[in-house]
What we know:
Layout: E1 6-10, H1 14-26, E2 30-34, H2 37-46, E3 51-55, H3 63-73, E4 78-83, H4 88-96, E5 101-104, H5 109-135, H6 145-157, H7 162-168, H8 170-174, H9 181-184
Helix pairs in contact: 2-3, 6-7
Amino acid sequence: MPEKVSILIVxxxxxxxxxxxxxxxxxxxxTETAKTGKEALAKAEERFFNVVLLDIKLPDITGIxxxxxxxxxxxxxxxxxxxANATVQNAVDANNxxxxxxxxxxxxxxxxxxxxxxxxxKQEKFNxxxxxxxxxxxxxxxxxxxxxxxxxxxxxxxxxxxxxxxELHFETYFFKKNLPKKxxx
Length: 185
């Protein structure tokens, strides 16, 4: 890996932040922490994170709300929800808004590293597909706001995140045969 994998840890519990930071840095990951959802979103604006470890219960906004906001910012950022207060509704919401995993506290290190490894594999596959697709699109082509709105509407209807919807329907939006004839020539 050319660059260090970056992980944002979002939790209002200082002990959890400290423990996860120590464990992840020991394994060679770059980490940053946030104690609130708004702080996490601000940090995600400043830099790209490969993975976000996100507590569901935060003091200002819910982890699910942060997950929704992150899904629209960086399509390839992967999120892992962590919670001591699991509910079926939280698990369903986390899944519907694109969380890659849902882990209960206290966090088992092996489970955490397995989830991070899976996230990084998904991210690599997503980035590869994007780069392959981009080579097939003429330079002047990009997705219009209208198409992005349609993608978002359809993703919401299917209860998927934008990135999950694009992953499933990648060919529809990124291959030359699907572009308008004038643009595809």
